[in-house]
Design goal:
Radius of gyration: 15 Å
Helix content: 55-70%
Mean pLDDT: 79
Structural class: mainly alpha
Shape: flat
Number of helices: 6
Strand content: under 5%
Length: about 100
């Protein structure tokens, strides 16, 4: 975000610009699958991945769970249940 603000002009920063920047930075700085995930049982590794994935997507949606549901292709009620089961705090990130 800071990089976009420094490089940006007078226009607003779009969601696409943020996503592109996050994807670029992540691709260069971290492997897609970390070794510690590979050492875990499948169920535990999947929970870690789902938690990280949904937290990142939720940030990109400004904390709006309804928008997140559309983005990840889940029914909203199932998504709420999934977020709770993974311990993802969605209440403090934005209005729904």
């Amino acid at each position: 975000m800071q990089r976009l603000l420094i490089l940006g002009g007078t226009e607003d920063i779009t969601l696409e610009e943020i996503e592109r920047e996050l994807t670029t930075q992540t691709a260069h700085s971290e492997p897609l699958v970390k070794q510690d995930l590979l050492a875990m049982p499948l169920r535990e590794a999947r929970e870690h991945f789902e938690r990280a994935y949904l937290q990142q997507q939720l940030l990109l949606c400004n904390g709006k769970v309804g928008q997140l549901a559309k983005r990840v292709g889940m029914e909203r009620t199932h998504l709420y249940r999934k977020l709770r089961s993974l311990g993802v705090d969605f209440r403090n990130l934005g209005e729904d």
